[in-house]
Amino acid sequence: MLHKLYHRCCDGLGHREHLVRTWKLKGEFQIYNLHRGFFLFKFNNNEDCDTILEGSNYFFVGRPLILRRWEPGMAIEKLNLSTVPIWMRFPELNLSFWSAHCLSKIASKIGHPLYMDVQTTEASWLSYALVCIEVEAGIDLPNQIDIRTYLGVTHQKVEYEWRPSSCKECKSFSHASSSCLKKQAKENVKKE
Q: How far is CA 69 from CA 53, 109, 173, in A?
């Protein structure tokens, strides 16, 4: 299984210990550091690999672990990711919006809501709500959203645990707009 890790400052050992605790595997696995944040996982139990790939989204240091099954001939640099899960935080959220239904509607203004953390679900930590959403490449992540109610408009601050860079031209998280070859080619054609 191929894994793209977007957090480069961790060592393989710490990464492995975290995954062992998170995945609760039946067998053993090896991690091979490829390059540019990519890792290859080799499992001695195929059921473990299938369970992980079918499981929910996994995060490490607040950033998603993007997992794909390895296939012969797979070009690692050309993996086209058009969506990624990210955690968004609503600090000082009005108590009247503190429900799964309301939070889902609010979060859907930015992306597709996936789930909330335990403290948000149980409303046990009310200083902010934490929601995981899936966002599309190329969209702008706003710092504030407007919530319309029968009482008027509320301006809600939005924070992100991680802001992924993406290309607006290709609609992909595989590279930033500033290094897009497609965009550069279009600009070169306009100059001619």
A: 8, 31, 18
Q: What is the DSSP letter of 167?
A: B
Tell which residue, 164, 187, 167, 188, has the closest CA to residue 177: 167
Phi, psi of 176 (to 5 degrees): -85, 160
Query: By the 8 A CB rule, do 111 and 134 touch?
Result: yes
Taking the chain (192 residues) in runs of 10, the rounded mean pLDDT of each run is 42 68 84 76 85 74 74 70 88 93 95 90 90 90 94 94 84 79 72 66
C-alpha distances in angstroms, 102 versus 88, 129, 148? Answer: 15, 11, 12
Which residues face 91 on adjacent strands?
128
DSSP reduced 3-state for 107: helix
> How many angstroms separate the CA atoms of 168 and 177, rounded?
6
Nearest alpha-carbon partner for 38 in 72, 66, 58, 57:
66
| Tokens describing residue 19 | 């995954």
Q: Where do the structural domains in the chain lie, given as residue ranges?
A: 2-78, 81-192
